[in-house]
Known about the structure:
The complex is a heterodimer of chains A (about 150) and B (about 140).
Chain A: E1 7-9, H1 12-21, E2 24-30, E3 37-43, E4 45-47, E5 50-55, H2 59-65, E6 69-78, E7 83-95, H3 99-106, E8 120-135
Antiparallel strand pairs in A: 1-8, 2-3, 2-6, 4-5, 5-8, 6-7, 7-8
Chain B: E1 12-15, H1 17-25, E2 29-36, E3 39-46, E4 48-50, E5 53-58, E6 71-81, E7 86-98, H2 102-111, E8 124-138
Antiparallel strand pairs in B: 1-8, 2-3, 2-6, 4-5, 5-8, 6-7, 7-8
Amino acid sequence: MMTMREIRELTRTECLDLLGRAHLGRLAFIDSVGVYPIVVPVNYVLYDGAVVFRAGEGAKLAAAVRGAPVAFEVDQADDTDQTGWSVLVRGSAEVLVDPEDLAELAERPLQPWAPGARHHYVRIDPNLISGRRIELDPKRGVWWDPTE
Amino acid sequence: MTLATEPTSSRFQTLSPERCRELLASRHEGRIAWEAPDGPQLVSVSYVLHRGAITFRTSPSGALAQFERPTMVAFEIDHVEQDADVAWSVLVRGWAQPVTDPGDLATLRADLTPVPWATGPTTLFVVIHERGISGRAVGPRAV
Lengths: 148, 143
């Protein structure tokens, strides 16, 4: 059975506030051949108004080195008021090289999702930040079950 | 470069395609990414497996209207327990396109709830024809 749910667009300030409260997001970019999209979960921090994550020598770093356009999404169900929210950041990735930035980020609790060396910090220059909040069905403990 | 000596990479597992499909069947929420004219897009969708293929229902308006025509996509699901140090993710690559078979559409209309933020009539049913599947896991126990 379909139920109507309220959907509300979030302001940029609200989006940044929510981004600052979470630490896991998903990063999408197009592979270096320019053919397939890739999505990977990454831990991040909000640093100076931008999403920053760590990268090793793999595809994420390659995307950042070439300044590739990326999309980064964070969502969460908020059990206290039975709503869920989703924030999307779109922009270009860049490798951080400023020693002051790197020193400050080294103090942050930013653990990579996957094991292995992650020496580089990548920042998403946010061209666009958008978000929405929706009502959740109180009968469900998760966002939704599409078969119910 | 002291971080390079971390022995953690031994905990990395590659998941078999069979295990990836089991994990896909055990979930109903994922993220779909594709290359839009203005850069990559990434949207969270609720899904079911219909005849073994990822299928979701939406409105043919907004970003997901892209799937009215065949589109190369990546579809990702994951599970992360920060405290338990356990995490896995599965990535499916393939083509997303509208479901057109009348029998499939009838079944899906009856059974499949739209993605939660669809606005307007949710008449677009999208299926992903898989071209590759991969998964990886991190943590002290098998996924």
